[in-house]
Amino acid sequence: QVQLVESGGGLVQAGGSLRLSCAASRTIFSFNTMGWYRQPPGKQRELVARITRSSSTNYADSVKGRFTISRDTAKNTVYLQMNNLKPEDTAVYYCNGNDYGNYWGQGTQVTVSS
Fold first, then answer.
1. Which residue stretches of 1-114 are H helix?
2. What is the pLDDT of residues 36-50, one digit of tens each?
3. Of 69, 75, 86, 87, which has the highest C-beta tally within 10 A?
């Protein structure tokens, strides 16, 4: 059973920064892609950022230039560095790992106050 455990969420003022972490229970190279999604209140879950096994990355237009996805293979951890946060970034953020299955973490709340 694959486990993905997020941490690092919290309350921050607009313009601030947070770093989310996603620790996997197995080597992250076993996934085709790993990514971060978010679900704002009353809205659908959306892709924020994704990194492939070959290190290609892609980002939602709304976060380009502000968010960075990275990984530490020795720690089996994927990160999401979020800078210049805006109130519209408020959401539950979920880690995702995809291979032959699709795996989700439990989510971590990010709240950005104006």
1. none
2. 999 999 999 999 999
3. 69
